[in-house]
Amino acid sequence: MQKDKYLSTPIRYIKGVGPSRSKLLSKLGIETIKDALYFLPYRYEDRSSIKKIIDLRPNDISTIVAKVKKITIKQPKSFNQKLKILELTLTDSSGVTYAKWFNQPFLEKVFKINDEIVLYGQFRLNYWHTALETINPEYEILDTEEPFNEQINIHIGRIVPIYRLTNGLSQRQIRNITYTVLLDNIEYIEDSLPKEIIQSQGLPDLRESIKNLHYPPNDISVEKLNNFQTKFHQRLIFDELFFFQVGLALIKKKEQKEKGISFNYKENLINQLLVKLPFNLTNAQQRVFKEITNDMTSPFPMNRLIQGDVGSGKTIVALLSMLLCVENGYQAVLMAPTEILAEQHFTNISNFLKDIDVKVQLITGSKKLGLKKKIEDAIDTSKANIIVGTHALIQENIRFEKLGLVVIDEQHRFGVIQRATLRKKGFNPDTIVMTATPIPRTLALTLYGDLDYSIIDELPPNRSPIKTILLDKRNENLRFNFIKEEIAKGRQVYVIYPLIEESEKVDLESAIEGAQGIQKRFPNLSIGLLHGKMKAEERQATMEEFKNGKIHILVSTTVVEVGVDVSNATLMIIMNAERFGLAQLHQLRGRVGRGSNQSYCILVQHKTNEDARRRLSIMTKTNNGFLIAEEDLKIRGHGEFLGTKQSGLPEFKIANLPRDAEILTAARNEAFSLVDKNSSIAIYTKLNDSLRQFWGDRFDLLKVG
After folding, report:
1. Nearest Cα to 190, choosing from 653, 676, 684, 675?
2. Secondary structure letter of residue 186 according to DSSP
C-alpha cells in the first residue's frame, strides 16, 4: 500500500518538472509518478547505427558522432531580421558536414568548440550542392571523460522512444522526465496479476516490460516495437484487457446471483400476433426468441444482446418477448435514441397489435404537459402495457406499476447511466439490448461482455441484395435518370442529405434546397421533406404519406437512418456520401431493399480523401454489415467506433481491439475462469486495487449491467 501511495506522488515533485511544466504534462494525462511510468511511446526510431560522415547520402536519416570545429551565427539580410541561424561545422576522421538550428539562441551557450556530439537527423545537400547538412537535428553532447555509452545517452545512438506531445513540451524534455522517473521509481511498481495467470500465459515481468518499453535494448526489432508486437507490449495490453474483462465477469456473476422475474410461458398473445403477420419468422428469429424465452422463464434476470443486420427482424422478436411479459401481468418498455425512431416503433407496434387487447403508449420529450400527465398516469396504473419512448422514460416522474421487461434499441447511443436508471424503475426486470449497428465479435465481447449474445444472422427470404453504385456529384443526369426509371416502375425514392458540422441549420438548408431542385426537375411528382426540426405530428404525417404512396420522392436528413420501413422504396440516393461513417451509410442503405423488388443505393461523392474513398469502396463491394463493421473498426479505431463518451467504458491506453483480438480472447478466458473459481476476488488484494484504479467511478455504475 505504501508503494502505491508513493506512485501517486504528483509529477511536479520530480526533478526537472516543477509547477509550470506539470500543467503541460497534465494535458497528456500525466498527473502522478505512476502516470509517467505508464505514459508509453507511441513509436520508436532506430538511432543505434553510427555512420561515418563519408558514408552519408543525400536524404539519409542517420546518426553520426563528430567534433564541433566551428560555431557560426548567421542572420541573412534577405530574410526576416529576427531570423537567426546557428550553424555547426562538424568533422570526424572521414569528412565534414554541417548542422543548423533556426531561432534557438539558447543553443549558443550549449555547444563549445571541440565538443564531441552525437547527431540524429536527415542529411541533405546544401543550397550550393557542395556539402551535406542537417536541419534541427536531435543531439547529445558526450562526456569527454567517458566513452560513448548507448545505455546513458537516451536521445541518440540507440532505439529512441517517441512520445505524444503538447505545445510547450519537446521530445527531449519528455524523454528526460520519463528517464528520471524510470530510474528512481520503477522498483515501486508491483505486479497485481495472479502468479498462475502470469505463468499460464508466459507473460514477462511487469517492471521489466515497462522499462523496456520506454528504453528498449538495441536487439529488439523497431518494426515489432512500432507494431506493438513485442512481448513487453503484449504484457501491458493483456493487463488492460484482463482488468476490463474481470470487471465484466464480476458484473455477470452478480446478476446471475440476483433474483429476477420467472415468467410463465403463455402463448395466447404471441399466437395472435404470429397468425396476423404477413410472413413467417426466419429460423434465426425463431432461434433467438427461444433463447429469450429460456432466459425469461428462468428465476434470474435476463441480460441479452440481440444483434442483427439491417432488416433482419429484431423488432418482431422484441415484440414477441414483450407480449410474453404482458401476458404475465407485467409492463414492457422500449427505449429508442431519437423521437422519430420512437414514433416509428410506436406506429409499427400499434399496427402489429391492432385488434389484439394490448395497450401501447408513446412518451417523448416533446409531448405537451397535459397529455404527458395522462400518459404518466396510464403508465403508473398499468393502463399502458407496452410503453415506447426516448430518454424521457428515465425521468423521475415516470413510474411503472409493474415493470417486467426493458428493451433498449441502438444501445450504443445511450450512456451506462441511462441504461441503469431505466432498469431501476422495476425490480430486476429482464433486459434486451438491441442494435442494428453490426459490431465485430471482438468489440461485442468488450462493449457487452456482461450480456448473453444472440445474433439474427439471416435476412427474410425473397430479398434481392441491394446494388450499390458510386457516382461523382457532377453526374447529375445519370442520378436523375435512376430516379425517373424507378418512379416509372411505380416505386419510391429516398434522397438523403448529411448533417454538416453538427449544424442542424446547415443540414436543414441543404435538404430544403435539394427538395426544391428535385421538384423543378420533376414538376409532376409529389416531393416530401423530412427533417429533425419538424414537429412530431408533421414528421409522422409525412412518413404516413410516403408509406401510403402519396409521396414519390422523400428528401430527408439522417432522421430516416433507422426504423423506417417502406417496402415500395427501391432507390436510396445519399448526397455527399463521404461525410458519413460506414455504419451510418449501411443503416441508411438498409431503408431500401425491404420488399422483393431489386433495390439500389447510389452514393454521391463530392470531395474525398483516402479514408473516405476506402469507406465508399467497401460499400460497393458488400452488403454484409458485419464485414462493413470490421472495416469501419480498422479505419476509425475502437474509440471513435464506439463513441467513448457515451459508451461508459474505461479508456484503453495501449490496447487496440482490432489489433489485439487474440490477447482479448486470452484475457477474457482467464478473467472469467478466475471469477468462476472464486466466491470473491478480494483474496487477490493487489488485483482488487488495480481493478478499482482501472474502472474508477464506472465500476459501481457497471454493476447494474
Report:
1. 684
2. G
Q: Where do you find CATH 3.40.50.300 in the chain?
A: 268-456, 467-622
The total number of residues shown for the chain amounts to 705
Q: 49-157: what fold?
A: OB fold (Dihydrolipoamide Acetyltransferase, E2P) (2.40.50)
Nearest C-alpha neighbor of 401 from the set 387, 381, 421: 381
Only one residue has cell 464506472, namely 698
Closest alpha carbon to 557 in 509, 494, 496, 603: 496
CB 691 within 8 A of CB 243: yes
Q: What is the pLDDT of residue 151?
A: 45
pLDDT per position as a tens digit, 552-587:
999 988 766 555 678 899 999 999 898 888 878 888
| Helix 268-276 × helix 314-327 angle, to 10° | 150
The per-residue pLDDT for range 427-450, each reduced to its tens digit, is 889 999 888 766 766 667 666 676
Start-to-end CA span in the chain (Å)? 30
Q: If 0-12 CB within 10 Å is exposed, 13-18 middle and 19+ buried, where does residue 286 land?
A: middle
β-pair partners for 405: 332, 430
Residues 322 and 350: beta-carbon distance below 8 Å: no
**Residue 426, φ and ψ in degrees, nearest 5:** -135, 180
Q: Provide mean pLDDT across the span 44-57.
A: 89
> What confidence score (pLDDT) does residue 404 get?
94
Q: Which range, of 444-453, 536-545, 570-579, 594-603, averages the lowest pLDDT?
A: 444-453
pLDDT at 499 over 70: no
Q: Which residue from 407, 406, 394 is spatially nearest to 434, judged by alpha carbons?
A: 407
Residue at 596: amino acid letter: S
* Cell numbers that stand for 212 in this block: 523496456
SS3 readout for 266-297: CCHHHHHHHHHCCCCCCHHHHHHHHHHHHHHC
CATH topology of domain 467-622: Rossmann fold (3.40.50)
Q: Are 546 and 492 in contact (CB under 8 A)?
A: yes
Question: For residue 626, which of 411, 409, 413, 441 has the smallest C-alpha distance?
Answer: 441
Q: Is the pLDDT of residue 698 over 90?
A: no
Helix (H) or strand (E) holding 477: helix 476-488
Q: Rounded to an integer, what distance in angstroms lies between the CA atom of residue 28 and that of residue 49?
A: 31
Residues 225 and 161: their CA atoms lie apart, in Å, by 10
Which residue, among 648, 300, 315, 371, has the nearest Cα to 537 in the 3D structure? 371
State pLDDT tens for residues 449-486: 767 888 888 877 777 789 999 998 888 889 999 999 99
pTM, full prediction? 0.68
Residue pLDDT, tens place only, 378-401: 787 778 899 998 888 887 778 888
Residue type, 129: H
**Which phi and psi (to 5°) does residue 209 adopt?**
-65, -45
For residues 509 and 531, give the distance between their C-alpha atoms in angstroms, rounded to a whole number.
10
Instruction: Please identify, in words, the CATH class of the domain defined by 268-456.
Output: alpha beta
- Tell me the three cell numbers of residue 40: 508509453
65 CB-side CA count, 13 A: 16
Q: Residue 212 and residue 186: Cα distance in Å, rounded? A: 11
Pairing of strands 467-472, 600-605: parallel
Distance of CA 662 to the CA centre of its chain: 19
Radius of gyration in angstroms for the set of CA atoms belonging to the chain, rounded to a whole number: 31
Q: What is the pLDDT of residue 636?
A: 67
Inter-residue contact 398 to 379 (CB < 8 Å): yes
d(CA 73, CA 106): 12
- Phi and psi of 43, rounded to 5°? -160, 175
d(CA 66, CA 99): 11
| Helices marked H in 522-659 | 536-547, 582-589, 610-621, 625-642, 644-647
What cell numbers appear for 274 in the block?
Answer: 404470429
Is 238 a residue whose pLDDT tops 60?
A: yes
pLDDT tens-digit series, residues 17-31: 999 999 999 999 999
